[in-house]
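#lab-general

N.A. 3:47 PM
ok so I finally got the sequence cleaned up, no stray characters, all 130 residues accounted for. can someone with queue access submit it? mine expired

B.Y. 3:52 PM
send it over

N.A. 3:53 PM
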Amino acid sequence: MRMVLLIYAFIRATRDGLWELHLSSLDALCKYLFAYDKQKYARLVPLCLAEMTALQSTDPDIHQEFIDINFVVNKNQIPFCAIGVNHALEHTNRIMKVIGGLVGITQNASARERFLLTAPELSRLASAAA
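B.Y. 4:20 PM
back already:
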């Protein structure tokens, strides 16, 4: 039950953009990554936590941005709707796949480069049209 409550705290931290809660709940969840043999996360989460905890002294401007809820993506002003940056990128990738943007270009270097240069604008246009 403790682990479930920690997961709820982590989700709340992301959805509300609470940086300190994000770090503290991730720190508390770290032991469960070891217990459940999630080796990649168990190895990388402590490194991430160390870097993010040191951020206040190594890069105070970025730390302040994270405190100001700029470590998550919120497309509207509705509370509890923010998502992590990686989740937002998956949304953008999905939009592009639906309209055929990523189909068949992975083997063609020229097409891939054109797509990567135009993808942000195509995504903006697709969102505006919806």
